[in-house]
Write a structure and sequence with these properties.
mainly alpha; Hypothetical protein af1432; 10 helices; 55% helix; binds fe (ii) ion
Length: 165
């Protein structure tokens, strides 16, 4: 399961990618959406790590893996998707209301809402807007009733985003 949510990791990944695709995102951002939580399955911590006061730093784990194989337009939004949550919490007062309980729980461990210096630094990233879009789909992709296409539907796009050679 996806730490405390009503869907599995695979369902969450497919739902996030499907929401990206439905929004007309570039293939690279669809694949970033698909793989954004890969870090959760690259460590041996319990899937409710935040409940044990542990930040699993899954965004960094995933990005370090992805940057070896994929273009920056995939790995960078993934690296920034937790920062995007902290950014949105600081910039958009209504945003906190839509966060799930596990997301709020992990927020504190991840540093809470950004301060002004962090906001300014975040906005310097060429991928910060992609990270925010990804984050919005991420937050919605926890719906036990949503039907998504299977992983096979994304294979061609995955291949198109690999670093060539
Ligand atoms: Fe996620």
């Amino acid at each position: 399961m996806y730490g405390g949510e009503a869907v599995t990791q695979l369902e969450h990944a497919l739902q996030t990618a499907t929401l990206a695709q439905n929004a007309g995102a570039y293939p690279s951002l669809v694949i970033a959406a698909l793989l954004h939580d890969l870090g959760h399955i690259l460590h041996d911590l319990p899937d409710d790590a935040p409940g044990h006061n542990i930040d699993d730093l899954h965004e960094n784990l995933a990005a370090r893996f992805l940057e070896q194989h994929f273009i920056d337009a995939v790995s960078e939004p993934v690296r920034l998707h937790v920062a995007a949550k902290r950014y949105l919490c600081a910039k958009d007062p209504a945003y906190m209301d839509i966060l799930s309980e596990p997301s709020i729980q992990s927020l504190a461990l991840q540093g809470g809402p950004m301060d002004l210096a962090e906001i300014n630094a975040f906005e310097l990233s060429p991928f910060y807007k992609d990270a925010i879009r990804l984050r919005r789909w991420d937050d919605q992709a926890k719906d036990p009733d949503m039907i998504s296409p299977p992983i096979e539907a994304f294979v061609e796009m995955i291949e198109a985003c690999l670093i060539s050679g």
